[in-house]
Structures are given as C-alpha cells and as structure tokens.
Amino acid sequence: MKRTVLLALGLSLLSIQAHAISRYNSTSMSCDQVKARLANEGAAILRWRSKSNPNLPLYGRFVANGGYCESGTRAARSYVPTTDRKSCPVWECKYYDPDDDDLFLFRR
C-alpha cells in the first residue's frame, strides 16, 4: 500500500502541465511591444523574413534576462527587426565556453 501511494505521488509530480512558449512575428510589433512581451512571458520565439532573401524565414528564442537561459548558455545582446526599428535590442541565449571568459583568468 505504501509503495502504491508513493508511486502515485511520484507520477502526479510528473504530470505537471508544461508551459508552451509563445511565437510572434517581430515585424508586426513595435520594439516596445516586443520588449513588453518578453518581460511578461520571460521567453518567446520571434520570427521575421530575411532582408536579402524574403523567402527565407528567420527566427530565434529571445529572453527577458539571463535567468531564462539554460545551463551552458548566457544572455547576449541581439537584434530583431520591428515595425518601428531596423534593429530592436533584445537578449538571446548563446552558448559559451567558461574557459574563454577573461573575467576570472589571471594573466602573467
């Protein structure tokens, strides 16, 4: 009986609903709207068309801050086109190698 209760409890923890990430077309929003959506939701997929090849869709996962980045990544400045700007500054999680970070390395 004890095992059954523990198993049921463990399975109920696994069934917690996952939050889906929202997708938006950045060129149909202003820069302030993009920033507000990221601030409210934490992360979102932003899509737009390439300027050099309009048939090529571009997209990325952008975040409100580095707290929404996975392990091994950190928030880096990136830019997306919006209705009012050619390049709206946003944060995007990028992979990095901690060994390349000169902040904590001592040079002789």
Beta fraction of the residues?
25-35%
Number of domains: 1
Mean pLDDT: 85
SS-based class: alpha+beta
State the order of secondary-structure elements, H for helix, E for strand.
HEHEEEE
Strand order of the largest sheet: 1-2-3-5-4
Q: List the total number of helices.
A: 2
Please name the defining characteristics of this protein.
108 residues; alpha+beta; five-stranded mixed beta sheet; 2 helices; 5 strands
How does this structure look, described?
This protein has 108 residues and is an alpha+beta fold. It has one domain. 22% of the residues lie in helices and 31% in strands. Strands 1-2-3-5-4 form a five-stranded mixed beta sheet, covered by helices on one side. The longest helix has 13 residues, at 2-14. The radius of gyration is 20 Å and the shape is extended. The model has no long low-confidence stretch (mean pLDDT 85).
List the helices and strands and how they pair.
Layout: H1 2-14, E1 22-25, H2 31-41, E2 43-49, E3 57-63, E4 73-80, E5 88-95
Parallel strand pairs: 1-2
Antiparallel strand pairs: 2-3, 3-5, 4-5
